Each structure stands twice: as C-alpha cells, then as structure tokens.
Amino acid sequence: MLKKYYYKLTIAYDGANYCGWQMQKNSPSIHEEMMKAGKSFLDEGFTVTGCSRTDSGVHALNYAALLVTTKKMDVRRILGAYNAHLPRDIVLHDAQEVNENFHPRYTSKNKHYRYTIFNNKYPIPQFMQFSHYCFMELDVEAMNVAAKAFVGTHDFIGFSSMKTTVKNTTRRIDLCEVAKNGNYIEIDIIGKGFLYNMVRIIAGSLIEVGLGKIKPEDMALILESKDRSKARITAPAKGLTLVGLEYDDL
After folding, report:
1. Is residue 113 a contact partner of residue 189, using CB atoms and an 8 Å limit?
2. Pick from 92, 61, 68: which is nearest to 4 by CA?
C-alpha cells in the first residue's frame, strides 16, 4: 500500500459565483474547483475534504480543508501549483503537513463566522459585494443586547432552516457580538457547530432588533419558543463570511 501524506489547506474565496463548498450537479462549487486544479499536478487518488458545506454565495477568509495524497510535496509547491490552476476568486494561502488524525471538521475547537452589514443612506457599489445593505439606521446597542441571548448551550431549532435533517439541534455558542466599524456593522459568532442557515437567521433576527421590530429582551423568549416563524428573516448569503476555525496544535 502506498504511503499517504496529509496536508491542511487554508483557502480564501469569494463565494458569489459558487453554490458553496459541496459539489452540486448543476452549479459550480469550491470543492469542484479544488479537485479540478489538483488533477493538474497530483496523483489520481488524491482527496480534498472541507471543514463545512457553506451556503451558496457565502465567502471565506480561512476555510480549512484536508488534502490526502500519495505524492510527497513541499508545501510551497502545493501553494504555487494550486494557485496557478485555481480561478482568481479562490486562493490557497497556507498549507502545512499534518498527521492522519487531523480532520478539518471533526477536530476543530470552534468556528468563527462574521455577518457584515453596510449601513448607509445610499449604497456604494464598491462596498456591496461582501455585505448586506441596509439604508435604515440600525440600533447597534440594542442588537448587541439581543445577541447575548444566543451565548451558551441552547436548542436552535427555531433558528434553523426547514431543510435541517439533523436529530440533535442543540448547539453551543461561545461568542455573539455586534460592533460598528464606520458604516459597517459586524456580527461575530463563534461556536463549535451550526445548523443549516443558523448564522444567517440569527443575523436576520438581530437586524430586526436594530430596526426596532423586535425588542432586545424578547430574543431569549424567541429562542426558547423553538418557533422558526418568530425568528423572522434569513439574512442574504453575501453578507456572511467564514472567518476561520481554531484547532489544537497540529
């Protein structure tokens, strides 16, 4: 049996033109592009496994993936070869050799998402690609008060898509904060794992708080109700970015 080599890949991508990481029959995916690029310089039996499916249109700064190959390579060669064959909206910016026990999804300690809102009277085209535009002024302080309701271990079935098929809908959130940065409002959420569309539904609910449509103190009650209709809108995918994942020493 040929010896296998394991490499952790860190990828940044603009998800606007993709259906997410997972391969789909009729839509281009990040995984598909990684496999197409890898075929140009790797052995036939190589695999690339991602840390998360990610929704269609969602972006990533530090997406983690595992490359398994029977071809021993210098990590600089992996970086150069991949980036020479990937489209311009996908960039491999780090690679390191790891042991066979590493898994990009199951060995991560937590996952960090950021939802970005461009809050201004007028849309600015250059700032719109990676953020959700809202022209009405949002109450960031109220949003931050409401965000605290999500911290801790809760059943998030009311903040998940109807497509959710997992039996256990309890998740632990370690951080949920809202901060204003110029005309941008950023919602940062860190947790071990998330349900389908969970972060975007949380973001949508917090936007409703910012607009005065939901009282901050009612967010805990909405969470406890487990009623999807009370959580209101699902925020658009283009405002969501996977910032990165944390792992123990690799």
Report:
1. yes
2. 68
CA distance linking residue 73 with residue 70, whole number of Å: 9
Assess whether the region 5-106 and the region 110-246 belong to the same CATH fold: yes
CA distance 59 to 206: 20
Residue 147 near residue 177, CB atoms below 8 Å: yes
55 is catalytic: yes
The one catalytic residue among 43, 55, 155, 248: 55
**Residue 108 in tokens:** 């991560």
Q: What is the pTM of this model?
A: 0.94
* Sign of the Cα pseudo-torsion (58, 63, 68, 72, in order): positive
Arch. (CATH architecture) of 5-106:
2-Layer Sandwich (3.30)
Q: What is the pLDDT of residues 114-172, one digit of tens each?
A: 999 999 999 999 888 899 999 999 999 999 999 999 999 999 999 998 666 788 999 99
pLDDT tens digits, residue range 197-248? 999 999 999 999 999 999 999 999 999 999 999 988 999 999 999 999 999 8
List for the chain the helix, strand, coil content (%; round to 5): 30, 30, 40
CATH topology of domain 110-246: Alpha-Beta Plaits (3.30.70)
**Backbone φ and ψ of 13, nearest 5°:** -150, 150
**What are the sequence ranges of the domains in the chain?**
5-106, 110-246
